[in-house]
Write a structure and sequence with these properties.
- The chain is mainly alpha-helical.
- The chain has a domain of 107 residues: Arc Repressor Mutant, subunit A.
- Helices cover 60% and strands 10% of the residues.
- Strands 1-2 form a two-stranded antiparallel sheet.
- The longest helix has 22 residues.
- The relative contact order is 0.11.
Length: 155
């Protein structure tokens, strides 16, 4: 299958535009947490059994850095350290209800910002984009893991 040489560049450009839209929807002036702290809360919200070492692996940082991030989030009331009921030596990181509300608010703001852009596109193009994005997601999910030494880009 022959592909347009500009397709990858167009996708990269669209991804950058999307990141800009998402970032502007939740500027630092609107949030009491840094982008890194927001990422930590998002990761922990979707992975309820995570401990500091697991978080450090997800962030690709040393455990002491992950622990300091958690200290700051705990001090602001957005994170709790909770003992694992099955292993007293383990401590799980749990976002508080305030953190979950913050994540919900961020998601809603981002959704509205993306919808505002979509509203400026013709309906037919929106439908084509939906089909293409679903196909892209399926292809990405079935892709083999990157070869060792190939750095994956993180958001």
């Amino acid at each position: 299958m022959e592909r347009s040489p500009d397709l990858a560049a167009a996708i990269d450009g669209a991804a950058e535009a999307l990141i800009g839209v998402l970032d502007s929807a939740v500027s630092r002036q609107q949030l009491a947490v840094s982008p890194t702290q927001l990422r930590v809360l998002s990761l922990l919200s979707s992975r309820p059994d995570t401990n500091v070492n697991g978080l450090a692996e997800l962030l690709d940082v040393v455990p002491s850095s992950a622990s300091r991030l958690c200290d700051r989030l705990e001090a602001t009331g957005l994170l709790r350290r909770v003992g694992d009921p099955h292993d007293r030596r383990e401590v799980r990181l749990v976002p508080t209800p305030a953190a979950e509300a913050l994540l919900c608010d961020v998601k809603e703001r981002r959704h509205r910002a993306v919808q505002a852009v979509l509203d400026r596109m013709p309906g037919r193009v929106q439908q084509e984009l939906l089909v293409a994005l679903l196909a892209f997601s399926r292809a990405a999910a079935s892709a083999p893991e990157p070869a060792p030494g190939v750095a994956a880009r993180s958001a």
